[in-house]
Write a structure and sequence with these properties.
Blueprint lengths: L1 H15 L2 H6 L10 E2 L9 E2 L3 E2 L6 H5 L15 H19 L4 E3 L2 H6 L4 E4 L10 H6 L5 H21 L9 H7 L2 H10 L35 H4 L14 H14 L3
Parallel strand pairs: 1-4, 4-5
Antiparallel strand pairs: 2-3
Length: 260
């Protein structure tokens, strides 16, 4: 009987105080500076204000006390082009909200405009290039490259339209070049701060494992793929694997504990 009463009390508590709302009261991820996740290729902030691409930008983290602004830059373009677009968005946020620094996910911006950077969070970025793009850019794979670039270009324009930024310029071919091994080496030479000294290899996948290391690597052995970590498969994942928001909440909590 006592056990039954306890279960009833737990149920009533959950009904009157949702998990996210109660967790938010202790400010578990209430960072000093706002979090600004910038999507990858071909990502978005939200489609028709319904489907949020980044789990980091969803209402779950805001309910836990985080101040989050999701960026919406070109879906397919070189890193420098997308980085300059993000700089404009951050400058606008600074003007609107008076915030001087941000926790964001672009090392290019941190290098080009260090005055905007409180911290840089890397989540599945191909910092040392991707063998997928290396292969596609080989002359012998010209047909595959043409098909992939045309498809990516078309998808990017549709996503830009649905996410409210139809004027975003798209260049799928140069986006692939930007994430190739040789271009990544040059980019790392120009923006070396945080480059991993123990991992300098590109990956057979789009962006996983060693290639995603930048600065201190918190962890890279989660049982998931790149599409899982950026929440681009409608939240679907393998059974018994961590939810992306749970992982990102841990990242945000570390920023809070560091005073960022």
């Amino acid at each position: 009987m006592k056990l039954f009463r306890c279960l009833i009390l737990v149920f009533l508590f959950c009904m009157t105080c949702p998990l996210n709302a109660c967790a938010g009261r202790n400010g578990y991820i209430q960072t000093r500076y706002p979090i600004v996740p910038a999507h990858g290729v071909p990502g978005w902030d939200s489609l028709l204000d319904i489907y949020v691409h980044w789990s980091l930008g969803g209402p779950e983290l805001r309910a836990d006390g985080a101040e989050v602004y999701s960026a919406n830059v070109s879906q397919a373009n070189p890193t420098a082009v997308r980085g300059k677009q993000l700089i404009r968005e951050l400058d606008t946020l600074r003007t609107l909200h008076g915030t001087q620094k941000f926790n964001f996910t672009s090392r290019y911006v941190a290098s080009a405009r260090p005055d905007l950077a409180a911290s840089v969070i890397g989540i599945g970025s191909p910092n040392f290039g991707s063998r997928v793009f290396d292969k596609l850019l080989e002359p012998r794979n010209a047909t595959a490259q043409k098909f992939t670039s045309h498809l990516t270009q078309a998808i990017s324009h549709v996503i830009a339209l649905l996410s409210g930024k139809p004027a975003n310029p798209q260049d799928a071919v140069q986006s692939m070049v930007s994430d190739s091994a040789w271009e990544s080496i040059e980019s790392n030479r120009q923006h070396p701060r945080g480059v991993s000294q123990t991992c300098r290899d590109n990956e057979p996948e789009i962006a996983n494992g060693c290639s995603s290391h930048w600065g201190p690597a918190l962890r890279d052995d989660y049982p998931r793929k790149h599409m899982d970590e950026v929440n681009q498969t409608l939240g679907l994942r393998k059974p018994f694997t961590p939810r992306p928001p749970s992982v990102h909440r841990g990242h945000a909590n570390q920023l809070k504990n560091l005073g960022l």
